[in-house]
Structures are given as structure tokens and as C-alpha cells.
């Protein structure tokens, strides 16, 4: 299913460790945005390729290299050599169907996770894989497409007094993570609004789309759970990993973020339960309405079907038909009819049918 | 969904750590109530702002500062400086959409949790975030609104012989926690009464609102579970945390409270199961009634529809119609009719339809 | 809900640690039964109050003090002083809405749990809180009411050769626990018999009470699970607690008892699953019957409603009506009627409706 | 419920540790089969009672004593004295309603578990408790009845070259366990065949027994889960217990067996899920059929009921009735009738009812 | 059930440890393919039997022996002797109904797992057991049948520059594992596509096969969960086992693979949830349609059944029938009829039936 698992068949028969791009190419030419900054200075540039000259890997401040478009295997390989990235990590970057993942090597930590956003036009959740590689003096971010949720971070870096400028590469990595998690929360809010919206409609009577919407919400929540739950586990590695490049003094930020993710998972569970309950209630409501409909039908049919037979009898054309000639037959007919109606109504009332 | 997750969008693009108030302003001007006490003396005052002169942070007894209304960022910041509160904690105080949370620093422990109450007028649960910060000689409590569940604690402090007066700041913090947990229990009792009330009504026949009420109860119980479960985890930190300012001799109080929370969660689970069972039974009841209704319909229709046809036949106007002239046709008609009725009743009886 | 959570509102605003009785007073005046025994001698007496003279707390054998009726706060306080019981434990004794609980202090271990019994007259489970306090040379038991499940233990103590007489206070505490757990098992048996009884009835057709009984069984099993599960956890503390007064040589008895409780929980789970399955099957059965009923209705109605129309046509009084005059119309009418019946029966047969 | 929990009431009021037989006596007189063997020799005998003379407890090879029928308390007591069995274990042997259990004492290990078999005649699972006591040089097996699943083991022992003869008592105990677990697997296979059999039938239309069979399968699987899951836990004790008499060199056999039990539990879970799914699908199928039935009914009724009214109108005998006299009334009647039929068919087609 | 548990009855009564083939013979004569390679040389040969001459167990490079067809017990025994395989492992190889399993001995590690593939022709999952035995210088693979998913690995080995040639036996074992796990992912993709396909169809109206397909998907996903979950556990042993022959430098490959398996299990859970949701929604849809059908029926029947009775009344042939003679009876009849229709439509509209 394209939506949740990407086509791995391309790698079938390949030696593990071969660099192959798995995913949809979402951008024509890769774009590389570089920010080099320390407390005093800030240089921004945009490159078209990676080579040692262009990027100073020995710079002492923070160098943030943003790569948009990861289908260019050559470029990824060059970048790997330049920053001494582990080959298996390169492979993971290229495979856009990853479970959120943390990798720590002596000289760099890597986080692979998904940017989740709600595409209002298509009315669906879009997932884009992002890799954040944190080195002693650099942060590498690799995006599938050009969509850029990190512009506010860039804006803050441009402000000389911002915390980002006063801190090192690990703070930048944290700020990026924080932005990604904020996007999760905003997405969950959007889903939450849809859940609340449904809440009123399940009690209204004529809404054929409800089952479909409940299914879509359930699928979205299942997908969110699958996507965000591993992020919670991953956060814990950031503290505990032997080679963590995050500084102790910034641990409380990470802890805070990790608690936000746990909160998000709690809320996803809450919504999942609510949507399941909505479906149960929707069904109970359908049942309850059906009961009402059937009672109406049964009352009408049970009263008038026997009466119709009764009237039919006296419409028969038998030549020998004593009642026909009897003068009080017609008034008697109405008397019997009315007493049948009354006693059936009494019978239904006693059974509390109306 | 406003009810369960607050609008975090306001913080989007902000550097983490910026102080922004997230929530609804529930009070016009913050009110600050201060109690300074030790075994011998008690001073109560009400302030309009926080400044070093007004509050003696070096006092040796217990200083309890109650702040009602937390939307005034300046005031919060001043308070933070005065009591050396960690900046990230300040940020958490201002964000009223927190998961229950415990934070310990060397010089203060903080608890963020929710006061849950049942608003009978609105027939809904209200949640208000409260922060309790425990220092060596002070307790800070920060409320969203003016609603005050701590008045009984204040009353006890005014009594010179109360335990509160004989104990230190950690006992006060415990007494406040105890009050909050008592409110949880009272809330659960209220829900419990609603659950018991429903119990009888699911077996009554004409109650269109049941599905809606079951849904509301389920949502409330889901919300309670989400809100109270983390409080149970949080309690454990109070014992185990390295920097805990709670004194060993008061640990049995905390343990008792923690067990009460676990008990509360057990009861929430019990009620959740009961409400789920009620929904299942309600559905089974609807099904069972439908069966009854359909059996009545089917018996009436199956008997009288064929008979009506039978009567209709002899109402036809064909000019050649031998039975019409036959003298015993009419009595024979009734004979056949009655034998059809009897054999169908026999057929339905055998199938145990009535 | 009175049944599962007692009214804690009484304690609202009280300092934690105040002695307040929470529960229903089930006995007019407390009764105190004392047994003092060792291998050689046995003294039984019945007291009306607790005071040092009456009870020899320094006796070297085993002193078992049974208190029936715990609403007399003064008496509880006196007892507390006499046996040096921790104040918080006194508070727990008075609050009859406790989760099963274990408390160990250096000089006494306490177990608070519920005696569960099935009241056949009221057709409901009754729960009564019991506190067992084990000291070096005494056992204190505090009952809510006069109902006495411990008489057989007393009987055994009266027998000079019984194990109880040969052992110390911890064995007595174990024997009491054993009696309580035996009562759980008997209760579960009773429920089990009800579950088995239902088993046959869900397949019978006319049983309007089944849904209600299933709901009651589910509620009872939920309540049992909530009540007995913590007893399993509690048992483990008896082995592992630092201050356990149970002697190592009697650990195998405790282990056996603990396994019995786990077994009980297993059986409760089994019954819960069975009752849930019964509800599912009951619903499936209702559905299946409804199907049958609807097929009967549909077959009758689909055959005879069109035929009635057909007969109705030839009952019309149009002056120009060619078929009416035609001699073979009437036999032809029956021919067509029969062929309609046959082809509809064929149609329903093909769809496997009967 | 006799099926799953035996009547413990018999022990009510008894001192724990008293020897009482709980269960159904399944054999008139106990039978005792003894095999004494070592690498070289094999002696088989059948005894009627246990006494020191008959059984040489000092023999150096392996002595396997099979006792069929455990209701004779005297015999059990004698056996207990002879082999120095712990009194609590004797009590467990006599109580045939045990959770699978492992007990280790310095001089013997005991396993209490159930032999589960499928009784094809009664179409139900039979459970029989078996106790295996492993000593340094003996193995005691205690059966409730005469049914003997261990004959193949005996046959192998009779073969001088068999592994059993070359090994010691722990290997014999393992071989017996292996036989018991094999029986579990065979039982699960039997259930599996029933599950597969049902699979096809839930899609067939006329099968009133399905709900009942699903319920029975669910109950059987619940019972198997409850019975076999603790055996998995128990296996682990065999490795880890301090006093384990199993030899290290045979641990891989135990590990293999333990994995087989885990596999069995997996398969039970799989079948449980399948049966639950079958019930859901069966219900969905009933719903789907009901839909079909109701559509047929509604189409017939909605077309012909209005037409019958229409025909009825022209069967009225009003003296002033202009249409009656009109020459084209009758052909017009058919025209209108046909157009009503056509437009209703069109209406139902548009709603995709057929 | 043949599909999920193989017939173990064959081993009943056999001593554990006897070599018996359990499974279906899938190939006539075993085929043995051997590859002996090191960095420089590569020898490929195909044997018909195993004997010391043919296979050089002392070779220093890597010897990969592929055995297709494992029903020849003699051959397996010979192979066992040649490579000093533990007897219990030989037994496991022959029993094709194994839970995925890891075994480590000092001189070899063994993995038993299943190759899962989707057989498009039969539209079902096929499982074939494979054993991989890793020695210091050899890898043994034992297949049930001739189907060969390892050809791509062989192809890579033939390439002198491939990683396989540059590495040792543990890398080959890893490459084989990788191929197997890739097949799992491809299989899950196939299932995923079926799940997505169903997604649209549950909302379409006429699809009688949906319940059956949902059941099949659920069963397949249950089977996948049962098969793949233990593989995740097994992977962890590869790192942690004491005698692991995998080299530390290749651990990151194993870690990567293990994460892929965890990802696969996540996706299986996601699909399971989706399919369960689909069934719920399908049922809700059926209910919703039934409601609609019943409303149509009830509206038609409730309007026209009373009217038919009304018309029937005036078709009666009573000789004394005053209305019949009245001139405005017929127009009045229509007036009453229309007002009944209008008021019933108004009644149904008010109840929001259409």
C-alpha cells in the first residue's frame, strides 16, 4: 500500500548496503542551503552541489547544511565522504520508508523521522522523511522535497540575540526537532477538530457519509500512532546513547520535548477511543432508529392488514351470502372494525411500543 | 479540539523557551494571596504584584504564595527571578495544556497537574491547571482562575494546633496535593452515580437519549483516565527523585495518596468497563425488541395477507365463476380461512415465535 | 456510586490524618472477642471496651483480639495507643473504601482487604472490609459487622492439637487469610455456576431476561477482578517486605495461598471471557432468528401481495372489461396464480431462503 | 462451575494442610505400577499398596512409581512418608483443581499439571491432573484415573538401548513431560481442524448451529489458554530453580520443550483470533443477507401495495363513479399501473437495490 | 489444521530426539549446491549426497552448502556428523512446524525460520521452513523444496568485487537473512495492496464477497503476526548470544535488519487495525442501508395499507350501504385519501425519515 509502505521491490536482489533511492522524486534538482554562524557572524549561501571547497567542515561555529531533494545518489555519496557519514546511514537516508530511527556514531548522531502535515486541499496527511545529522560543529538536514517548515528557525538564527546563536550545534538540532514535534501537535489538533465535529453529527439522522469519515479518521489515527510512537522511544536514546552529542545542559529541553511527544501519544489514544466510541454509538443509533421505524410499520400493518381482509370478505360475490342482506351488517362492520383497532392499540400500548 | 488540546499554534515559529501564555484568560487581574507562618506566628496578606520587598524569600517558616491568574507574563517572570525558578518551568506554567508533570531542581520541586471538578450547571467536567512549586521554605501555587479549592487548607493553617502549623513546607505541599486528589475522588463519585443511574434505564424501553449519554460518559471516563493516570506515575517521582524536598518522615503520607490515586484509576477502569457493557447490553436489548416487533409483524402479515388474497379471489367479477353460485361456498370459505389461521398459528408456535 | 466507591465527601476539607469513620455503621455496639493461647493454655473472653487492664499486651503466647464494629473512633484510638499502631493505619481502618493494602512497620504488619460473600437472598455480592494486624505476639482483626467467617478458625484453636496452637501469631494471621481467600473461591464458584447456567439459556428462544443477567454477571466479574487482583500483589509483599513478621518456615503456606489467588484471578478472567462470548453469541442468535423471521415474512408477502393485486384487478367494476366476459378467464386466473407462486418459490429456493 | 473449578467448599473450615481429596473419584481401587531400571536391569511389578518393603527407596538406578487413583488418603500419606514428600505437596496432589504448579524442595522437585485430551465421543476436552515428583533416584507419577498416556514411554524403557535406560531419573521426568506436551499439541490440532471446518460453513447460508459451535470453540480455547499458559511459566522454573534436579546436560531438551509450549500458546492465540473473526464475519454475513431479504420484501411491497389500492379503488361500488363508465378506463388503468411499476423499478435501480 | 500446525501425531510415542521427518515431501531427490569461495577463488559444484570427500570442512574461505529437500534422514544425519551439528538441531530441521528459533552452540549458530511468499496463482501465503547454520567457515542452508530465493545472493558472490567475497561466513548468513526479511516486506506490501483495494469497496453497495475477503485478510495478517513476531525476538539473540559467530563489525547490519523486522510488525499491526475497522464500517454501512430500505418500506406500507382497507370498505356488497348511493361519496373518498397521504407524509417528514 503506497500510502504506508513504499516499494522495496527495487532493492530485491541487491546487496544490502548498496545506495538506491526508494521513494518518489519530489523535486527536480536538489537545492542546498547553508548557514554558517557563531555568536558574532552569520554567512548564508545556496549551493548547487557539495564539494569540499564550498563547505568548510573545519569551521568552529555551527554549519547548517539543508539539502532539499535526496534522489541524487552521487551528491549524497559526496556528502557522506565529506562529513564521514556511515555508509548504512546513507542507505537509510535514501530509503524514504523508514521507521523513525536513531543512530549514533562517535563523530555524529543521526535522527531519521517524518515531518507530518495536514494537506487541507487533498484532505489527507502528508508524510515527508527528514534526516537530521548532528556533528560536533555541523547539522545536516536532508529533505525529500522543497517544503520548508524550518524557515522560522532560520529567521531566529538571523537574529543575533537569539538562543540559537548563543548555543552550539546540538541546540540547533534540538530547535529543529522542536519544530517537527510542534507540527505533530498542530496535526493532532486538526484531527481533534474533526473528531469533535463528528461528535454532533452522529446524533443527527441523515448523514450517509459518517461511516466513511469515521473510517478515515480511524485510519489517520492508526497512521499517526504508528508514526509518532517510535519518536517517543527515539527521544529516550538522545539522553542515554553513549555517543550522544547533545550537551547535558540542554537535556531539560530534550526531556520537555520527549514529554510533549508522550502527551501527543496520549491524545492520539484518547481520540482513537473517542472515534471508536462514536462508531459504536452511531451503530446503536441506527439500531434505535430501526426499532422505531419497524414499530411504526408493524403498528400500521398489524392493524390494517386484518381489517383489509375483513372488508375483502364482504366484497365477495357469493350468491348465497346471508350477512349481505342483513340491514345492520354495515354499522356492525364498523363496530367490529373499531373494536379491533382499539384492542390492537391497547395491545401495542401495553408492550410500550408507543 | 479545544476541550482536550489547547491551541499550540500560537507558539509556532517561536524559539522554545520563549514565555507565551497558552490558554484562556480566566481572570481580569491576578490576585496574590500570601500566608507566612511558623509554629508561633501567622501573617496573611493579599498583594497585587510580586516584588522582593513584599515577599520575604529568606523567611525561615513557611511562606505560601497563591497566585490566581497566570496570563501576566511579567509577573510570572518576576516571580521566577525572585524564587530562582528554572526558565523552562516558567514556560510550562504558562502553557495550560500540560500533561501532569514533575520537575525537580536542587532548590525546588514542581508539580503541574489539573484540578478536575464537575460543573453541575454546564453538566461537564472542568479542568484547571495548577502548578505547585515546593521550596525549602516556600510553596508557590499558580492557578488559572479564582476558583479556590484550597480554602479548607487555609482554614486549617489558621488553627495554631493543626498539623500544618507543626510541619514544614513539604507538609503543606502534601496537604494541597491531598485536596486535589480528594477532588478527583469526588468527581469519580459523581460519574459513578451517573453510571449507576444509567444502569436501570438501559432496560427500560423508551429512552432515546441513552446512546448520547453513554457516549458522554465514555468520553468523560476517557478524559479522566488520560488526566489521572499520569498523576499516578508522577507520585512515584516524589519518593524517588534525587532532589526531592519531601521529608522521609512524611513519605507514608505520599504513599497513602499514591495508593488513593491507583485506587481511583482502578475505579475509572471499572466504570469504563461498566459503561462499555451497558452499551453492549443496550444494543442487545434493541436487537431483542426488534425481534419481538418483527415477530408480531410477521405473524399478522403472514396470516392475513394470504387470506386477503383469498377473499379478493371471490370478489372478482368474472362472468363464468362456478364457486360463486354454489350454495355452501360461503361457509366453506370460512372453514378454509379458519384452517389456514389455525395451521399458521401452529407453525409459528412450533418455531417458538410466541 | 455507593456500590463501588464510598462517600469520601465527609473528609473534604479535613486535615489528612484526622480519624473519621467512612462507611455504614453495621452494628450497634462494638463487640470484642479475645483469645489468648499458647501450646498449653487457652483463655477466651468477650470485652465491651479496650483498656490496658483487660488485654495483656505483654503476653508471650498469641493474643487474638477480634473487634466487630469499627465506627467507635474512641475505641479505635485506644486500641491504637495500646498496640502502638501507626496513626495513618488507624485512619485506613476507619475508611471502609480501601483498595486491598499492605503496611509494614517494625513492630506490626497490617493487611486491609475485603471479605467477599454472595448474599443469596439479595442475589448480590457483599463486601466487608477487614483489617488484620499482625504483631510479634498478637493478631488484631477489625470487622465492619458481626458476620463472622472466622468461627472455624476459633474452633480449631480450641483443639489443643491443632497446628494453630503449635504455631505462633504469624500462623494465625495466615489461617485467617486462608479463610478469606477460601471465601473468594467459593464466591467465584457461585458466579461460575451462574455462568454455566446461562450457557444453555442463550440458545433457547424466549428469554427476555438474558441481557440483564449477562450485564449483572459482567458487573460482578468486573467488581471481583478489581477486588481480588490487588490481593495477588499484596501477597507478594508478605514475602518480600523488610519488616515481615511472617516466619520463613511458613513461607510455603503463603506461597500456596498466593498461587491460589492467582488461580482465582485466572478463573475470573476465564468467566469474563465466557460471559462476553455469551453476549456475542446471544446477539448472533438474535440476528440469526431475525433473519429467519424476515425470510418467512418476505416469502409470504412477496407471493401474496402481487396476487392480491391481481385478484383486485378482476374485482374492478369497469363497464368495459373484456376479460370478465371471457369464459376461460377464471381457470386462466388460477393458472397464472399458480405459475407465479411456483416461480417465486423457485426464486427463493435458489437463493437458499428455505 | 464443575467444568472449570472444582468444589472447594469441602475444605471450608478445615485447617490448611489437612489432607482432603477434592475431585471426583475416577477409579475404584488405586493401582500402582513400578518400574525399577538401570542400564543393565529392568524390574516391573504391580502393587496394591505402598510400603517400605515393596519399594526400595535406596535403589541406585531409577525407580518409577505410577499411582493410578489418588482418592486413598492413607496410601498418599504412606507414600509421602516413604519418599519424604512435603505435606503441602501432598495436599496439592489431593486437590485436583490446581493451577499448573512447580515446587522444589532439596530432595525432590514436583510438577503438577493437567493431561488434556479430546474425548471424541463426548465431543469435549477432558482434563486430568497429574503430579510428577522427581527425586534423585525415583520418579513418582500420580494419576486421577486409569487412562494411561505413558505406555509408549514404558515401551521405550523396556528397550535396553533406549535413551531412557542410558539416562537417569531426570530424563524420565523429561520424557513424561514431553508426552504430556505432545498431547497438548495433538489437542490443539484437533481444535484447529474444527476451526478450519467452521471456516467454510460461516459463508454457507443455512446453518443454525454455527453460533453454538463458535461459542463452544471459544470456550475450549479460553480453557486451553488458561491451562497451558501457566505451563509455559512453569517450564522456566525447571531451569532456574535453585534445587532443580534436572541435569545441565539435559537443559537443551527442556528448552526445546519450553519452546514447544510457547509455540502452542501462539497457535491457541491464533485460533482464538480466527474464531473471534469468524463470529464477526458470521454476523456481517447475517446482516448482509438480511439486507438482501429486506430489499426483496421492500421492492415487492412498495410496488404492489400501492397498485392493490389502485385496483381497490375501481372495485368500489359507488353509484356515482364516472371513470367506471368511461370506455378506455381499463386500458388506461394498465397504462398507469405499468408506468408506476417502471418508475419504481427505476427508483430502486438508481438506489442500487438490485 | 494443516495450514498452521503440522501433524505431530507421527512422533507420538517416539523418544524425543529420534530423527523423524514431519512435513510434506516437496521434492523427489535432494539437491545439494555447494559454493566454496574466498577473496580470490570461487568453486561451484552440485552434489547428490554428502560425504567427507566431496565437501572440505577444513577449507579456510567460506563454504556454502545449500540442501534442497530435507526428507532424507540419512543424508541429514551424515551432514550432522560431518559438521558436528547438535542432534536436537537435526530433529528441529526435520520438523517443518517450528516456531522461528535461534540456537547457539560453541562451533555453530543456527537459525530456523520461514520463507514467506505470496502465491498469486493460489491466492494464498506459502510458508517454507529454512534452516541457516553458521559455522566459522561454512554456512549450511536447508530448504524444504527447490524454490530458490537465494539466487541473487549467489549471483553477487560470483562477482569478485562484491561485499560477500570480501567478507566471511557471517556476512553470507546476514545476506541470506536480509533476503528472507526482504521477502517478508514484499509479502506485506502485497497484503497492503489488498487492504487498500478493499478500502474503496466497503463503501460500494453490492459486494457480497467483502465479508469473505475481510476474513481472509484477517487470517493472513494473524498468520503473518504469528510468523514474523518471533523473528524480531530472534534477531536480538544474534547480538546478545554468548557464542554468536557474527562479528562485531557487522552488528550494525544486523541492527538495521532487526529494525526492519520491527517496522514490518508495526505495519502488520496497522493493517490488522485497518481491516478490523473496515469490517466495523462495513457493518455500519449495512445497518445504515437497512435503515434506508426499511424507511422506504414503512413509508409505502403505512400509507397504502390503510388506504387499501378504505377502498376495500366501499367495495363491500352490503345491501344496506348508505354512502354508496350518496352522489359526492366518490369525490369525498379522494379528498379523504389525499388528506391521509398528506398527513402521513407530514408525520414522516417530521420524524426526518426522508
TrEMBL record, chains A, B, C, D, E:
GO molecular function per UniProt: cobalt ion binding; cobalt ion transmembrane transporter activity; magnesium ion binding; magnesium ion transmembrane transporter activity
Membrane topology: Multi-pass membrane protein
Keyword hit for Ion transport: yes
TM helices/strands, residue ranges: 296-316, 328-348
Reaction it catalyzes: Mg(2+)(in) = Mg(2+)(out)
UniProt-listed InterPro entries: CorA_cytoplasmic_dom, CorA_TM1_TM2, Mg/Co-transport_prot_CorA, MgTranspt_CorA/ZnTranspt_ZntB
Subcellular location: Cell membrane; Membrane
One family name in Pfam for this protein: CorA
A GO CC term attached to the entry: plasma membrane
Alphabetically ordered keywords of this record: Cell membrane, Ion transport, Magnesium, Membrane, Transmembrane, Transmembrane helix, Transport
Family listed: Belongs to the CorA metal ion transporter (MIT) (TC 1.A.35) family.
Entry-linked PANTHER family: CORA FAMILY METAL ION TRANSPORTER (EUROFUNG)
Function: Mediates influx of magnesium ions. Alternates between open and closed states. Activated by low cytoplasmic Mg(2+) levels. Inactive when cytoplasmic Mg(2+) levels are high.
Protein's name according to its UniProt entry: Magnesium transport protein CorA
